[in-house]
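Entry 14. Structure prediction run on the chain below.
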Amino acid sequence: QVQLVESGGGVVEPGGSLKLSCVASGDTAGIAAMSWYRHPPGKQRQLQLVASINSGGRITYHDSVKGRFTISSDFAKDTIYLQMDALKPEDTDVYLCNAQRYLADYWGRGTQVTVSS
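Output returned:
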């Protein structure tokens, strides 16, 4: 089992920045990729991939965050980060951390990001 704990969420004005962290613990050997998800606008029952990084360093971003968000990892610490700059009100959501290990998905409980003036 893998446990994931997110942190770093909060309330910020439009144009501001936040940095999220996700720490993995438990059976972390063999984690192939770690990602950040949120809900698509108006679709709370779906999840949208925000950014992903795999063990080989390959990075993927959703088009809506390219150029504003940066995912990074410190796999020695079993931790990923999401630097979020130029935040917009539409970025408001609960951000969930995901880890993929041997075809199984693990999820954290999420951290709330609110962008409001």
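The mean pLDDT is 95.
Filed with the rest of this week's runs.
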